[in-house]
Design brief:
The chain crosses the membrane at residues 20-37, 79-102, 114-133, 157-180, 261-285. The chain is an all-alpha fold and 295 residues long. It folds into 2 domains: 10-59, no CATH class; 66-291, MetI-like (MetI-like fold, Orthogonal Bundle). 73% of the residues lie in helices and 3% in strands. The chain has helices at 9-42, 60-66, 69-100, 108-120, 123-133, 140-145, 158-183, 187-195, 200-211, 213-228, 232-237, 249-259, 263-294; strands at residues 45-48, 53-56. It has a two-stranded antiparallel sheet. Helix 1 (9-42) packs across helix 13 (263-294), helix 3 packs antiparallel against helix 10 and helix 10 runs antiparallel to helix 13 (263-294). The N and C termini lie far apart (51 Å).
Length: 295
Amino acid sequence: MKNKNGESLVSRIFTLRNMAVAFLVVYFAIFLAYPIFKAFAGSLHNWNPLIGTYDWVGLDNFKQILTDKLFWTSMGNTAVFAGVSTLFRIVLGLGLALLLSAKLVKCKDTLRGLFYMPTITPLVAVSFVWMWMFDPQFGMVDKITGLDINWLHDTKWAMPAVIIMTIWKDFGYATVLYLAGLMNLPRDVYEAAAIDGANSVQIFFKITLPLLKSTTLFIVITSLISYLQAYVQILVMTEGGPGTSTYTISYLIFDQAFQKYNFGVASAQAVVLFLFTGVLTLIMFKVSGDSEELA
């Protein structure tokens, strides 16, 4: 088929496809590849854009951060924040998905929407609301629980407060993914298990969990990558305090770059975070592949 100018429909499709590919290549180069390259290059320089400093220092920035106590404190805080938040996201998400998939539960679509709503709510707005809720004088948390804790100004409770807010906002994401996974599980396997006399606990641990392994792995990877980069809730709720009790690596990078304008050190920290995230993801995919081969 040809148009008035003799151009075939197939050639037009190929032209549009080439334009789309070119657009993606340009987008990737400008917004992904260049920032990564700039961060790697900046990590090797003493870089302060305010005064125009961009002097080569080699690996000095990496030596500085690896001997910096605050860097390791922030890494430890990040590990706690990411690990606990991911764990509860999975447990609550799976538990709620199992509940919503039960035959006795009514209005399932409405409940799914309600539980997923916090996930799509802007994080800044949620952080401000929870900051008010944790207020020891006016907040609802102490009034409902009967506790008397100054959550965001206590070194022992500031990080748990941020984690609680993060879990509340994010567990709906895991719930929706687990619901999709549960709906696609083969029914014949459960019928065979019931005929063999397996109880509900055995069915859950021997059948349901293994069949949801790929979904769980996806949630773990995406959650860890997201939480390793978390800083918005820290910035709004605690600003890294009290002291350094809620400093995470991403907030430390933000502090170095946009508060102290030490972009060289911030870039070195970002490179370390980038490499750590990449290695962690590769390990998880490797573990997943090995477990599938054994299965």
